[in-house]
Inverse folding.
């Protein structure tokens, strides 16, 4: 039975937030559809692991190139319009891509370009959606936490749970369908955002005193790299992203060549990751309280390494699904712990810029991991890239134990509080 407290939270979220939530969910489903369909489309043209890694790298690189500047754009412009333009741009890209598929003129160059442009749109949309939450709900901490949790859940479930199996299933029927459906999802998302009314006045925003873009960015970067614990958190997350992106970049190839799964089976492996992520997110707070944040983070990193290693050693689809589920659960638990630690350490007025700087460092690992995975799979075999990535992640967890164990993190949090 709902409590009065939960009813109050629902009232404070309001209709404007739920339109933002709906737009985020629809957009995330579309993103999940093309995330599953693009590698499958690439494999129709070539079986080269490097070609597959190029497509994945192209989708990751916009976070490295644009995240810091996108954050400034999102803060200075109407966030609703940023999201609408991001949806409109991605709609245009998908219309062109669908036309190329229908006319049989699509090739690897077009796929890489499409993946890059779709990634650009995702950078701006995701940052704007996260930043817009305080514009539409009460600034009460519990309300903001509830709203943020629901937006993150919408992104995760749309991109990882619903979108991939739908995209891969539609691809099996006709390879143009997931891209056409994705285009329609961005139309629906844009219309929902346009329906949101805001009390903010554009002239008030434009008259606010500003530093230069470079100064805003530099302040956040300096704060990140001057703090030993934050440096370690960003570095270990970046190295983890190298291994995990290598895993996901080669997953379509592993599913087809090693596990013998159909297109729909590849989507189900991604869904298994999302199922695990749901459990990991729910259990993270309790696990951190029981075992300590350092233990959850480092054991989670080592556990993901072990799961990736097993994927390279055992050619069984049920084992693969279990390992993908474990990967999703442990990665999400790590993410919750790391986010909480950053919020404890970083002053509120610097949090957005430090988080943006941290995300840039983390995302650098993505293109590197995709490239290394492709090289290892090309030179040796796809399983070798998994064995190497898993072993690498186990070494990373051990190497960072002195800096990120429970005692070291407790000192860092106490020092920030003091």
């Amino acid at each position: 039975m709902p409590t009065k407290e939960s009813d109050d939270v629902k009232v404070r979220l309001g209709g404007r937030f739920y339109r933002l939530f709906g737009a985020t969910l629809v957009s995330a489903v579309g993103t999940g559809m093309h995330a599953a369909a693009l590698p499958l489309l690439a494999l129709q043209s070539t079986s080269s692991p490097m070609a597959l890694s190029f497509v994945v790298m192209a989708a990751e690189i916009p976070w490295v190139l644009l995240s810091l500047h996108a954050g400034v754009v999102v803060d200075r412009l109407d966030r609703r319009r940023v999201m609408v333009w991001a949806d409109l741009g991605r709609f245009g890209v998908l219309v062109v891509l669908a036309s190329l598929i229908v006319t049989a003129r699509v090739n690897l160059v077009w796929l890489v370009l499409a993946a890059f442009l779709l990634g650009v749109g995702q950078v701006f949309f995701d940052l704007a959606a996260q930043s817009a939450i305080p514009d539409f709900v009460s600034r009460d901490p519990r309300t903001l936490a509830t709203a943020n949790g629901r937006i993150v859940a919408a992104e995760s479930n749309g991109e990882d749970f619903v979108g991939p199996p739908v995209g891969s299933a539609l691809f099996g029927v006709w390879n143009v369908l997931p891209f056409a459906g994705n285009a329609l999802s961005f139309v629906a998302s844009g219309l929902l955002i346009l329906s949101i009314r805001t009390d903010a006045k554009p002239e008030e925003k434009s008259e606010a005193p500003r530093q230069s873009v470079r100064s805003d960015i530099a302040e956040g970067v300096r704060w990140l790299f001057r703090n030993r614990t934050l440096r370690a958190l960003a570095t270990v997350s970046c190295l983890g992203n190298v291994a995990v992106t290598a895993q996901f970049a080669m997953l379509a190839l592993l599913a087809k060549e090693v596990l013998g799964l159909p297109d729909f089976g590849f989507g189900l492996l991604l869904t298994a990751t999302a199922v695990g992520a749901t459990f990991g997110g729910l259990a993270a707070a309790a696990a951190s309280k029981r075992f300590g944040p350092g233990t959850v983070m480092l054991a989670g990193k080592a556990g993901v390494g072990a799961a990736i290693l097993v994927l390279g050693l055992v050619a069984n689809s049920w084992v693969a699904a279990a390992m993908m589920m474990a990967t999703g659960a442990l990665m999400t638990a790590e993410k919750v712990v790391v986010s909480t630690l950053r919020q404890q350490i970083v002053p509120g007025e610097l949090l957005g810029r430090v988080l943006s700087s941290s995300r840039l460092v983390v995302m650098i690992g993505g293109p590197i991991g995709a490239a290394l995975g492709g090289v290892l799979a090309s030179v040796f075999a796809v399983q070798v890239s998994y064995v190497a990535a898993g072993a690498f992640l186990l070494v990373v967890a051990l190497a960072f134990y002195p800096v990120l164990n429970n005692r070291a993190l407790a000192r860092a949090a106490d020092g920030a509080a003091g």
